[in-house]
Amino acid sequence: MQDTSTTITPRRGSADRRHANSLTLNPDHVCVAVRASTDEQTNSLEVQQDETRRFAEKNNLTIHDYYVDRGTSATKTKFLNRKSVKRMIKDMKREGIPNILILRIDRAFRSVPDMVNTLVELDNEGIGFISISPQIDSRTPSGRIQMQLLGMIAELETTFRQQRQLETFELMRGKNQARSNNASYGWQLVPSMRKSKLGNTAKDVVPHKQEQRRLCVIMRWRNSGMTWQAIADRLNAKGIPTKKGGKSITIKGGKTKTASGKWFPATVKSVYEHAHQPTT
Q1: N or C of the chain: less Cβ packing under 10 Å?
Q2: Over the chain (280 residues), what is each successive 10-residue block's mean pLDDT?
Q3: Is residue 175, in this structure, part of any structural domain at all?
Q4: CA 9, CA 17: separation in Å to the nearest integer?
Q5: Residue 67 maps to which CATH number?
């Protein structure tokens, strides 16, 4: 069988050029990066996979593999720091695959600095981005400008969304209304006389007396200089469970398990930092 791969010398100025190496690329091969910010957004992942598959078939591209990020926030986790992306880049270097295929820019980036830094770093490796909606190729000058403009819009949308959420949270908090079905430690949700927008019984947030007393102790310990680990150890030694201790919780794959109720340093820190925030 004839080898259709092509040997391409990286552009002047790239890291590979400086090391006097060349890349053997399969120009018609792509790796597909898909992402959903929560585990429940399975429909989003399926849509991204279906759309990228149809695009690849229409444009005679061969998909090497799909690299899926479940429950990953593009705002909190930089593109190159995501586990699936690290594995993808490693595979691309090994197999000589030159392009990453994504459905939309916001599936990869929510920050312009993250986008710019990623494009520069991957360009030095001879790797580019192809976006489907809108169709953009980062290997061209116009494509790079378009990607940066869309990245700015995505970052702006994120800022506006966060501001709207904060305003809504503050309004609901002032009315003692629950903004989620999860009460923070020290608080509990009780049925209200009000109705939600969907016509269901709304819930109000009220103090949980026993947890409030424990919360005061945790805050006193922390303010006296105790470490998160020391507080967690003391709570576990006293047999005091976390809020979800002994309750059935849903994990990945839709399976359920009983929460152990064990305290960890991160758990104590979260409880301390959200002491005045009734719902999570």
Answers
A1: N
A2: 42 39 66 78 79 93 93 82 94 92 86 81 88 83 77 69 55 48 76 65 76 87 88 91 71 66 88 66
A3: no
A4: 7
A5: 3.40.50.1390
